[in-house]
Write a structure and sequence with these properties.
Blueprint (H helix, E strand, L loop, with lengths): L3 H11 L4 H8 L3 H8 L7 H11 L25 E3 L6 E4 L14 E7 L15 E8 L1 E6 L2 E6 L3 E4 L6 E4 L5 E8 L4
Antiparallel strand pairs: 1-2, 2-3, 3-9, 4-7, 4-9, 5-6, 5-8
Length: about 190
């Protein structure tokens, strides 16, 4: 965890401010700012508030834990695409796909496109996870037991864990959907 002084220095530098410029903004000496940034002294709450205002950040940022190590971005052209033998679509993962042996993620999300008048699989799909499907374009049917749920663009369905279902593109054109599964199964 970064100390307050380290955070102030990091934020100051990210805003391209010198110590002198920051000290002038809050009416303290540059040496005082230097001591704060090196965590040699503990500034008063009023000084921390003036620093936060000068750096244009909420005061709470100075005391919050850094958690940007868990932030992951995946560019569109870097997404993992997987085609399983038992399904008729390619899955385009928008969340990281873990290697064997790595701890499962709490959630996984992928896009899939389904050709007109076709099933996603010849078999009933059963997951030990909740599955939510959001239709991006076209129309799909989700068959659960003897019920059929028809979903159009903008509609969604959440299928509870261990609930067998089949997905069919009832549309004359290709249908695309976003699927979110929790916990991750792939």
């Amino acid at each position: 965890m970064k100390l307050v002084g380290e955070k102030i220095r990091s934020i100051r530098k990210s805003k391209n401010l010198t110590i002198v410029e920051l000290s002038e903004k809050i009416n303290v000496t540059s040496g005082y700012i230097s001591q704060i940034e090196r965590d040699l002294i503990s500034p008063s709450l009023s000084v921390l508030k003036r620093l936060a205002d000068a750096l244009e950040i909420p005061l709470s940022v100075l005391f919050s834990e850094d958690n940007d190590k868990s932030v992951i971005t995946i560019a569109e052209n870097e997404r993992t695409k997987v085609k399983f033998g038992n399904i008729n679509v390619e899955l385009e993962f928008i969340t990281p796909v873990l290697n064997k042996g790595e701890k499962n993620s709490q959630v996984e999300a992928f896009l899939f496109k389904l050709k007109p008048k076709s099933w996603i699989s010849e078999n009933v799909i059963v997951n030990e996870a909740q599955e939510c499907i959001y239709v991006l374009s076209g129309e799909i049917q989700c068959h659960i037991g003897d019920k059929v749920f028809t979903l159009s663009k903008g509609d969604s369905i959440c299928v509870p864990e261990n609930n067998g279902h089949m997905i069919f593109n009832s549309h004359d054109g290709e249908s695309e959907a976003l699927c979110i599964i929790s916990p991750a199964i792939h």
